[in-house]
Specification:
The complex is a heterodimer. By secondary structure, chain A is mainly alpha-helical. In chain A, 63% of the residues lie in helices and 0% in strands. By secondary structure, chain B is mainly α. Chain B contains 13 helices and two strands. In chain B, helix 6 packs antiparallel against helix 7. The model of chain B has no long low-confidence stretch (mean pLDDT 95). At the A-B interface, helix 1, helix 2, helix 3, helix 5 and helix 6 of A face helix 3, helix 4, helix 12 and helix 13 of B. The complex binds fe (ii) ion (3 copies).
Amino acid sequence: MTRDEAFQQFLLRMGDNTLILGHRVSEWCGHAPVLEEDIALANTALDLIGQTQMWLGLAGEMGGGKTADDLAFLRDVWDFRNVLLVEVANGDFGRTLMRQFLFDAWHSIMLGRLLTSSDDRVAAIAAKASKEVAYHLERSAETVVGLGDGTEESHTRMQAALDYLWPYVGEMFVSDDIDAQIAAAGIAPNPADLRDEYDALVKRVLAKATLTLPESRFAHKGGRDGRMHTEHLGHLLSQMQWLQRAYPGASW
Amino acid sequence: MYAQMVESEASNDDPEKLAEFQARIDADIKIEPKDWMPQGYRKTLIRQIGQHAHSEIVGQLPEGNWITRAPTLQRKAILLAKVQDEAGHGLYLYCAAETLGVSRDEITEMLLDGRMKYSSIFNYPTLNWADIGAVGWLVDGAAIMNQVPLQRTSYGPYSRAMIRICKEESFHQRQGYDAIRKMAEGTPEQRKMAQDAMNRFWYPSLMMFGPSDKDSVHSAQSMAWKIKINTNDELRQKFVDQTVPQAEYLGLTIPDPDLTWNEERGHYDFSEPDWSEFFDVIKGNGPCNVDRLAARNKAWDDGKWVRDGLLAHARKKQAGNLAAE
Ligand SMILES: [Fe+2]
Ligand SMILES: [Fe+2]
Ligand SMILES: [Fe+2]
């Protein structure tokens, strides 16, 4: 794989994560448990979609003059490079917020490293996104603590959410040839190198939330290399891409 | 005009105090939460502000219906930002209602069990993407007609909420117009979507102003209190006069064969909406009433454990802080 191809894959991994998670979070619109959460979830989704425009915009430029919209709306499942964690269904509010926290923790550490990327365009995107994500993490961590250490019911639900989602965490830290190439070029860190910092952060928050970290380190994989997504992604795309697919060539 | 047919409450207060109160209103002095006010003024305002707040909240549903299907990232972002604004409007208005002595939970319960209403417009479905443009252009447009004058309303917190809200609403209207313009200028299928949206949203938009109230005692009282500034017919006419040229520019046909410019009046003549349909919708028989209310009830019921959990945690934290002092 050439360096440009590896770089493009890296950009798709970043942009597909934010696209798919942004979509999932936006599904909550109008259905949240309290008005402040409706506002916060819409705001998070909006930030993630904005970041998608930047990551996929750059990926499109690298990939022969495609637009971010071409990439978002006209690829099929096997071309998506997001981690499985962000495509699983929302479940209850607890699972949605737990997923957000587990992702935000990785995202904020990753973006922190990208601030000093050897590629100026990547560093510029990270500079904007990291401010937004710092806020996402503050909010999701606070909510995980509040619900984990809330009532018996909220505690039980948050523990169930963590148990369900934990096997999807490991994929964020798997390094492959693409990552090695990107790391060697100083564009982004090797994901495996972020794990210790991540574990420390997550343990601190989960302890405050009185939740128990599952012992298993088993990890579902297949999203960030596109080898095998979950069944959920196809349904998500069929909704997201419907208008573009049904009326090809129209401008909206 | 998210408040329709709000009945004013009669007051049997001390006539001297009433006269003083009316004099303040006539002098354009704002009424603030701590000031004395007639019971009727308070109750009518709670009803009106509550109905407006509920409309912002329920209004998230027809628009949210298209967020996951928005055709471009930019349109998705614009729609998300709009729906987020609407939830924010709900929040300001619930806060304004709270200054009148009704808590957000109380007023929410009244929406959920059907004691309080929200605007009839949100009981209509959004069926194609152009509907999102039409909602911004026509629905937010109609809302602005009423809300701009209400920036001058007599109750301070309501007036201030309206000033914040109006800025965002005019933005929504422009974005809605831009979205439907893109469709009207698009492929034949897109033009069909735009015209279909126009056909379905025209009369329900006219209904947003409520039936004629020129002879209504309730409206007369509300106008004397300056919590209603114009009659429903005045606002409807203003809306029609503003919208017809915009529709012409888009090349969309307004579904009213009798629509004509009346040189003498300096206004458009237009057909009244079918008011029996309006009363059906108000009674709960609109195309989406049952689903809208069920969705709000489900969100509230499913969210109970979240609200309880966060509250329990906040109490624990507070107890911990007290113990540490
Ligand atoms: Fe609004
Ligand atoms: Fe609105
Ligand atoms: Fe609006």
